[in-house]
Amino acid sequence: MRLKDRVALIIGAARGIGAGIAERFAEEGAKIIVADREESAGAATAARLGGHFVPVDVARRSDAERAVAVALERHGQIDILVQNAGIYPWTLIENIEPEEWDNVLAVNLKGTYLAARAALPAMKARTYGRMIFTSSITGPRVTSPGHGHYSASKAGINGFIKAAALEFAGYGITVNGIEPGNILTEGVQAGRSAAFIKSMQDMIPLGRLGTPRDVANAALFFASDDASYITGTTIVVDGGQTLPEGADFRLNPE
Amino acid sequence: MDGRLQGRVALVTGAARGIGLEAARALARAGARVAICDIDDNALQAAAGELTREGLEIQAMEADVASRGDIDRVVEASVAAWGRLDVLVSNAAITDDTPFDSLTPERWRRVMNINLESVLYCAQATMPHLRRSSCASIINVASTQGLRGQPNSMAYATAKGGVVNLTRCMAVDFGPLGVRVNAIAPGYIDTRMALMHGNVHEHRTDWFQDVFIKHGRLPLRRPGKAEEVAGPILFLASDDSRYVTGHVLVVDGGLTCTY
User: What average pLDDT does the segment B9-16 reach?
Assistant: First the structure.
């Protein structure tokens, strides 16, 4: 059990990647606090994992602080913070209204800073903490049309990871991130044909889309003692998708 | 022992000491049978004895990674002994801080040969076996020096930069064959590689202590330990990273997030 008795607050854990991280951490012995905007799904995930649920809109400072307060009330400490909540509306830049831009940045980027700031005092007091933020390959590495606000928010998370890693290093807190590629979640599957999913797979050297568990294993690594000398960096979990300039590698694998 | 590599066979080059030795130990503790090789046979045998006394399954062979014949021999011997190969850790390397003006063609070629070409040759020698494995993983040990410009490090940093992109190219070519390829980029790690010209230990110089520790240009304010690089190597060797390929995992205590 690599996380025995560690207390993990996972924001955006009702479903998808966040739920996968919560499940993986629970398997390794962590005590789980599931935070999410979606109350029924979040409560169900928490119940399944023997954890506790707290309803949170991470874009609100008081909510982020309440999630941390609940973790401290129940377990007296917080060892691991995962900020995974994110939204990804598809809109071309020429059509993004300022309200939509603000909303994406508020949840994805401001939410990350608010979560980090809320968890900081408790981690600082014990000179121990692991912060893990879900970024994306979309923004930091690559992008596609319709993801202007999303790309900006995720690239912003990578910059914030470095800054937080620097500022928190003296407190025994490491800060790292994960850049998932195309992960087969309910959100990604919705409204996409089997043929389109297949075309996505063909662009990936490992020949398949990722699973929430693939991402969860990277989060587990950052949370574990094996990552004690790692801070301010990210792991790309994309099956090699962002490496090639095209899918030609599929033509002659021999 | 957590059994993450139970039943698997690994080969680690440059395993007599430092990161290579700790990587071999971590992989073996996770259940793998590990072939270790090094050019320094005395140190290698001592390392093998230490690991074996711990109850780990180890096979040690003297080898110069600059020699394709040596690499072939080591790979064939480990496959002959254990019938398979699943993990390759290309770690063997030499340090070099020759200034630009004294960098001879011989020195340049020697650094490229040991630090870069050996990574290709080890992959070539192991691929026939790795592609038969359902859990194959290659881990190349690069360096943060291969990601940035570095004073007095033209040969070393160029070779390590080469390892970084060789890793990406191999990942694309080997992905469809089911073989993952990743690199580790360690920063300042307390090993014998930190010995500079004239046997000066870099981490103990006043300059290093002042700039990196006192003024915090190394955010965690300490050099890493070899075993702190072995954990990340185990992650990349195991199924925990089964959707990670072509990645360069930076293990540097935050060094490269500042300037």
Answer: 98
Q: Give me the pLDDT at residue B202, please.
A: 83
Is B156 among the catalytic positions? yes
Chain-chain contact of B175 with A249 (C-beta, under 8 angstroms):
yes
What span, in angstroms and rounded, lies between the C-alpha atoms of B149 and B154?
8
Q: Would you call A236 and B168 a contact, using CB atoms and an 8 Å cutoff? A: no
A249:B173 CB<8 A: yes
ipTM: 0.94
From residue B206, alpha-carbon distances to B190, B201, B203, B211, B259 in Å are 16, 11, 8, 8, 19
Q: Do B251 and A230 touch (CB under 8 A)?
A: yes
Interface with chain A: mutation pick from B165, B244, B256, highest number of A CBs within 10 Å: B244
What secondary structure does DSSP assign to B43-59, as a single string?
A: HHHHHHHHHHHTT--EE
Report pTM: 0.95
* Sign of the dihedral through C-alpha B243, B245, B236, B224: negative
CA A165 to CA A176: how far, in whole Å? Answer: 7
Q: Is the pLDDT of residue A253 over 70?
A: no
pLDDT grade for A111, boundaries at 50, 70 and 90: very high
Tell me the three state secondary structure of residue A175: strand
User: Chain A window 135-174: which residues touch B at a Cβ cutoff of 8 Å?
Assistant: 161-163, 165-166, 169-170
Pairwise CA distance, residues A35 & A37, whole Å: 7
Q: What is the tens place of the pLDDT at every residue in A122-132?
A: 999 999 999 99
- B245-252 mean pLDDT: 98
Q: Name the residue with tokens 């062979």.
A: B61
Q: What are the E-state strand segments in chain A? A: 7-11, 31-36, 52-55, 80-83, 129-134, 173-180, 234-237
Q: What rounded mean pLDDT belongs to chain A?
A: 95
**Mean pLDDT of all residues belonging to chain B:** 95
Of B177, B245, B249, the CB nearest to A239: B245
